[in-house]
């Protein structure tokens, strides 16, 4: 339970969804977790969701970790720079970085080809989900290099370079994979690990709201979307990343594309309901490994 005691983590984009769950599970393992995002009490982000980084920090504390909420827009270099200056001053090091900044769902139109898609929204997806990750890693990595160890996790969608059904969405998610691969190459001599990790069909707060269900009765949504039966809670991937962070042999995985379902098999954990969802197997059997039409 205290495998990460003494470790310092940053979860960028920890307001809700996978980011929130990852922060909580790292805290449960004993880590000090800086939870960042744009939504704070009394001032939500442009997404207009009710979740806040303060709530996430409180959940981290409830699990025995040390949650520290810091309002940061990771597309703004100065704000990111100040964040890591603060961490260096307060902690003197950084052990784990999780790049989970996204915010692209309301910007993505799945029914339009890229030349008809709103260009501003498409480019904004790249700013929020790619540029922000680069900026964050740029300022985080020097803290890891000083101690010649660390873990960088790029949260993505999918385990390959296949088209995801929308040019802008696809470009962002594939870029996260390549960021992990490229960083792994540059960081190899410093013994710092970089990996990309994907969840399956994620039951985020927004997805539950979309279907009008809760985590308690989520299966009701399968009446609307049958594939939701293979979905997973945000804590599934979170448990996987906590396990990765605690693995002393993690460097052997540097540069790899990992998934929640494969990590569950390797580290033998279950989702919050005791099941082991396998989106990869479900997807391959249902769609024959091809993108959904």
Automatic annotation (TrEMBL):
Q: What is this protein called?
A: NAD(P)-dependent dehydrogenase, short-chain alcohol dehydrogenase family
Show the Pfam families listed in the entry.
adh_short (PF00106)
């Amino acid at each position: 339970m205290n495998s990460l005691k003494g470790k310092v983590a940053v979860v960028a984009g920890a307001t809700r969804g996978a980011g929130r769950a990852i922060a909580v599970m790292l805290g449960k393992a004993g880590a000090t977790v800086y939870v960042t995002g744009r939504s704070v009490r009394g001032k939500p982000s442009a997404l207009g969701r009710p979740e806040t980084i303060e709530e996430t920090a409180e959940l981290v504390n409830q699990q025995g970790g040390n949650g520290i909420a810091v309002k940061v827009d990771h597309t703004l270099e100065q704000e990111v720079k100040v964040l890591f200056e603060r961490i260096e001053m307060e902690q003197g090091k950084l052990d784990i970085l999780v790049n989970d900044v996204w915010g692209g769902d309301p910007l993505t139109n799945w029914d339009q080809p890229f030349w008809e898609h709103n260009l501003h929204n498409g480019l904004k997806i790249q700013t929020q989900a790619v540029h922000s990750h680069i900026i964050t890693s740029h300022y985080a990595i020097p803290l890891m290099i000083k101690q010649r160890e660390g873990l960088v996790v790029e949260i993505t969608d999918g385990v390959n370079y296949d088209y995801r059904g929308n040019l802008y969405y696809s470009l962002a998610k594939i870029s996260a994979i390549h960021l992990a691969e490229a960083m792994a190459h540059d960081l190899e001599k410093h013994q710092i690990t970089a990996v990309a990790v994907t969840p399956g069909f994620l039951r985020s707060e927004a997805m539950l709201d979309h279907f009008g269900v809760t985590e308690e009765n989520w299966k009701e949504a399968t009446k609307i979307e049958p594939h939701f039966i293979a979905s997973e809670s945000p804590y599934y991937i979170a448990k996987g990343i906590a396990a990765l962070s605690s693995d002393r042999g993690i460097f052997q995985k540097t540069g790899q594309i990992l998934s929640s379902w494969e990590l569950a098999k390797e580290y033998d954990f279950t989702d919050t309901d005791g099941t082991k969802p396998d989106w990869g197997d479900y997807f391959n059997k249902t769609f024959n490994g091809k993108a959904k039409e």
